[in-house]
Amino acid sequence: MILRPNTEDIKVIGYYLGKVILGLGLAMLLPLVIGLAFKELNPILDFVIGCEISCVVGLLLTKICFTEKDLNWMQGMIVVSLSWLVATILGAIPLYLSGHWNSYLDACFDAMSGFATTGLTLVQDLDHLSYAHNFWRHLIMFIGGQGIVIVALSFFVKGISGAFKMYVGEARDERILPNVVNTSRFIWLVSIIYLILGTSALGIAGMLNGMRWVSAFFHGSCIFMAAFDTGGFAPQSQNILYYHSLPFELITVIIMILGALNFKLHYHIWTGNRREIMKNIETVTLFITVTLLFWITAIGLQQLGVYSGALALFRKGFYQFISAHTGTGYQTIYARQFLHEWSQLALMGIVVAMSLGGAVCSTTGAIKMLRIGLVFKALTQDIKRIILPEKAIVVRKFHHVKDCFLEDPQVRSALIITLAYLVLYALGALIGMLFGYPFLPSLFESTSAAANVGLSCGITNTAMPQALKVTYILQMWAGRLEFISVFTILGFFIALIKGKP
Amino acid sequence: MKPKPDLLNYAYCRMVILVFLIVTFMPLVSCAQGITSEELINNAVLYDGKQVVYEGEVIGEVMYRRDYAWVNLNDGSNAIGIWLGKDLASAIAYTGNYKAQGDWLEITGIFHRACSQHGGDLDIHARVIRKMNSGRQVKERLNTAKLNFVFVLLGVLCLALILRLLKNK
Question: I need a surface site. Which of A130, A188, A329, B9 has the fewest CB within 10 A?
């Protein structure tokens, strides 16, 4: 029997949703400061409007739905999934007001792409966009990468037990520290320290590239936010190709890899346990998949002789590959070069890399290394069991921070999520094909959206069908939240309609 | 009796063949007329190593590298990196950004699909540049409709704050 959610459920959801929206409104003050610093009049107004609307909605929700009750699992999941949708709609306001997006849907597409750290974009004339709007595009990637709700948890929520439910809802089921609020604060601490280091490195590289120091450090901070949170936005329309710089590309590769590692692993490295990086199932799996898939991609590129020389193969082949595998989406080639110049084998290497992603509890999307590792371990153990004598006992273990026994529920859960991702990739590809796009480009773009990567082979542009834009928005949303909270909200609406009071 | 060769037809055929060859293979030799970024990116293999004429707005900034410089020229569809001598780059006065319209340049140079000198970049090594239009600073006008909306929303926000304070009391 399905029970219809009661008023109290809706009040709790509304109250916490209001808090997240208030947080978003306050976040808009940062680009406003950038606008003031660069004396950009109209962008300042855009952010004041966005901030005011968010604060009004947030204040009204927290007032109307005021409650002192804590969240249960269902409410926590719904708060998370609704937060991402509402943040997209509100976060798109300043973007749309800038006049650089052709429609509000296009602005929402970019806002969702930003929050979900995807990197697909429909912006027009990016090279003339204001500093304030550009900063906002990258800031929403930073916020989204940390998790919108984690931001609220860190700054606006004081030690509620329901916090863990929202934390899990944002596809982060691993606590680094015993308290989930402290965990989110640790994630922020790691990110801020890397932000300072990464921005400095990119800023200095930018100055050595011949950029003025102001723009070098502005670009540095933007690129860091998008690279560490495996997003993929860049301040210029050519993406990373704009800089024509090997040092810049090398630094972004390091940042992308750092962003693809588990925050728990960062914690262990920071606390002196450096051997963990060699033993952890995720890093081992990442190393194996990177080696294998890049080998496939390189063979594909060699087939057509796309790049002559090791340096070109690294800067074009490996760069797009690692950008795909870490789910970042930075490009040093034009989108259409994928289709015009790369072989189908090389493209498949990129598509598979995109579909796998980085570590759990990182900023990447997609299936993720822990699940791939667990499924592979389970498969090898099952084969061993068949080969070995019947009386032999096969101990199934893996190392993830500590030695753990591999249990069937873990493998089942990993397989379910893997399957859900594969279905999501296929569905998007199918819809793309329904609109007349060929199979491989449709699969490429769909995987890129659902795995929150952001590489494009040219399908994503403002002229593509509206329904396909909506499809990609939903894919980015479901892919980022790893389905559970999305399924919960669907169940919630079914219960609202069909449930018994 | 053998028919007499028709000289007129010979000449006609030769001319047709010549025109055909020129039309077909001209892009392989050079492209004296302006070419768009779309054409270059979509037919990069065809134009690789050939002289092209490309024009667009200088965007971002001029990035000097010793005796050379990188500029990125956007023709409205895409921006393409141009590698040019420092002396040529010094002619650029405005670069496009939020507050400026960049100089509109026409450059003649060699197009590379995957430049071996620059790690596989798709670029053009400029030999000649010509300033077609000088850029300018863009004066930003305050949007009064937005300003009015800001004040209306400010009133609504104050009301919402008052409501919240009343609730707390």
Answer: B9
Which residues of chain B does A66 touch, with a Cβ-Cβ cutoff of 8 Å? 167
With beta carbons under 8 A apart, name residues in chain A contacting B112: none
CA distance A461 to chain B (A): 12
Plot region of A400 (φ>0 → left; ψ -120 to 50 → alpha; else → beta): beta
Nearest to B61 among A211, A237, A314 (CB): A211
Question: What pairing do the DSSP bridges indicate for beta strands A402-405 and B136-137?
Answer: unpaired
For residue range A257-304, list pLDDT tens digits in order.
999 998 888 888 888 888 888 889 999 999 999 999 999 999 999 998
Distance CA B129, CA B82 (A): 10
Superfamily of domain B37-137: Nucleic acid-binding proteins (2.40.50.140)
pLDDT of amino acid A365: 84
Q: In degrees to the nearest 10, what's the CA dihedral of B26, B31, B35, B37?
A: 90
Proportion of chain A above pLDDT 90, given as a percent: 62
Enumerate the β-bridge partners of residue B54.
B35, B107
Question: How close does chain A come to B21, measured CA to CA in Å?
Answer: 25
Rounded distance between C-alpha atoms, residue A146 and residue A188, angstroms:
7
For range A179-187, the mean pLDDT: 74
Average pLDDT score, chain B: 86
Phi-psi bin for A119: left (phi > 0), alpha (psi -120 to 50), beta?
Answer: left
CB contact under 8 A, B81 and A307: no
Question: Quick one: tokens of A141?
Answer: 């990637």
Average pLDDT over residues B68-93: 95
Q: Residue A158: count other Cβ atoms within 10 Å of its Cβ.
A: 8
Chain A nearest C-alpha distance from B9 (Å): 42
Q: What is the model's pLDDT at position A447?
A: 96
Check A63 against B156: CB less than 8 A apart. no
pLDDT value at residue A172: 62
Nearest-angstrom CA–CA distance, B131 and A133: 30
- For B108: left if phi > 0, alpha if psi spans -120 to 50, otherwise beta; the answer is beta
